[in-house]
Amino acid sequence: MTKKRKLHKTAEGKIFLVANLMSLLLIGVIGYFAINNLELTKALGLVFIAHTLGGRAAGIGLCFVNEFSLFWTIFYNFYLEVVIVSWTYSLFVLSAHNYIQLRVVRFYSIKLERKARIHKDIIAKYGWFGVFLFVMTPLPVTGPVVGSIIGYLLKFRILSNFSATFLGTLAAIVVWTYFFDFLNQHLHIIQYVLIAIIVIVVLTYLKRIKTWITG
Fold first, then answer.
1. Looking at 117-121, 167-171, 188-192, which range is the least confident one?
2. What is the pLDDT of residues 86-129, one digit of tens each?
3. CA distance 142 to 95
């Protein structure tokens, strides 16, 4: 039986550490603004919640409602994606290799793997570019988390996997940001679009919770 490497010496262990550091930095920044700018703190918190539960479109839309600049909208949402993917990917792989044996982590890892396997064979035909397009495509089933798991199942090296995942994510965030900017500048209906997106997200999320409960 091969002896397992120490957690901090594995690539996934290092990604887990980065995820922790980035999360602490985010908490520190939000904590700083909580003292100096309560309104901005609320906006950052709402964008984080919307982004985590509803994805990049909801997060980006809220940035516009709170009058973030284009740069900070792209930067903040991309930062959140990197944190979320780093956490999820590292926990998924560490759970698969029995470094982490928490039941809740294992439960969500199995759900993620099932979702990733549905798209794995199609993505495999296109390799790196397939993961990039999958992550960039603005559909409910796509996204960086599932994309990174597909890359893992396809045995991509971490650099290839994360470059495809994060470049696809960045491209999608830029497209969404300029799309909302266009609506804001020309049509003035961004709040209605955002409300529609949030309603769709809530309905999808409730359906997902029901699926998790019923199995």
1. 188-192
2. 999 999 998 888 887 788 888 888 888 888 888 888 899 899 99
3. 22
Six-digit token string for 29: 């920044």
Query: Mean pLDDT, to the nearest integer, of 51-63?
Result: 81
Structure tokens at 148: 């990174």
R_g over Cα of the chain: 18
Q: How confident is the model at residue 55 (pLDDT cuts 50, 70, 90)?
A: confident
Give Cα separations from 201 to 14, 53, 96, 153, 198 (angstroms).
32, 8, 29, 28, 5
Q: Residue 87 in contact with residue 168, Cβ under 8 Å?
A: no
Q: What is the pTM of this model?
A: 0.82
Judge whether 50 and 110 are in contact, CB under 8 Å: no
155 Rama sector, left if φ>0, alpha if ψ -120 to 50, beta otherwise: left
Q: Which of 173, 113, 164, 116 is nearest to 141 (CA)?
A: 116
Q: Which of 122, 114, 121, 164 is nearest to 143 (CA)?
A: 164
Q: Each residue of 42-63: b (16+ CB within 10 Å) or e?
A: ebbebbbebbeebbbbbbbbbb
